[in-house]
Amino acid sequence: MIDQLWIILLGFVAGILGSMIGLGGGIIVVPVLTFLGFPPTVAASNSLFAALSNATASTISYSRQKRIEFSLGIKLGLLTIPGTVLGAVISNDVAPDIFKILFGFVLIASAGYIFLRKKIETKEKTLSKQMAVFAVGASFFAGVISSFFGIGGGIIFVPLMVVGMGMAMKKAAPTSQLILLFASLSGVIVHSILGHPDFFQAGLLAIGSFIGGLVGARLSLDVKERYLQILVTVVILIAAGKLFLDSLSGNSNLFGF
Fold it and tell me: Into how many domains does the chain fold?
């Protein structure tokens, strides 16, 4: 038990960052577990338990701050569920080196979003029919990504809400946590049915992530976001580089020979 306590700390750190930037803590948890040799399905499914716990804590805190658009968040959250089922099922067949390469690209996209998020804010606009249709497709895709990689769909939903729907960033990131609540819950259920998680380790991650989510939501009111952006971007890019290097070191298995 003592040897596993570092997992609570990992969940706590990931929960703080995930809550503050609206992406979920999976962008921290999954690379760490992957570096430690966890199979992709275990890393993703364990991370989803942390994401669910983090989203629950963040949603509670942000709702008290009145920063969540509940109607939109519930609709987009429900639309992610079919994608999360598909993502969990196809994760069964992914090779570790392929997973590392794909997740490396997800991390690079996440770093780009984090660094540029303040520059994508737009004036409020009316939601067009075309954007509504796009939002349905984006929600399904975000569900696939969330369940397959064990991360939140914030990398898709926050830009969608800010750029496509004209929502202010101070509400988009909290609303993405409500959406992640639906995506992570359905992902956890399907991964559990498939027997992917290590429930003890997932529980420890969830404990740390819940506390981190509460702390992160509170800190988001006071912290200088630019410093946080730079720090998290650098860490994520380093992690992406490490994933690429690790995948290349095992590239003899990438194509089956």
Answer: 1
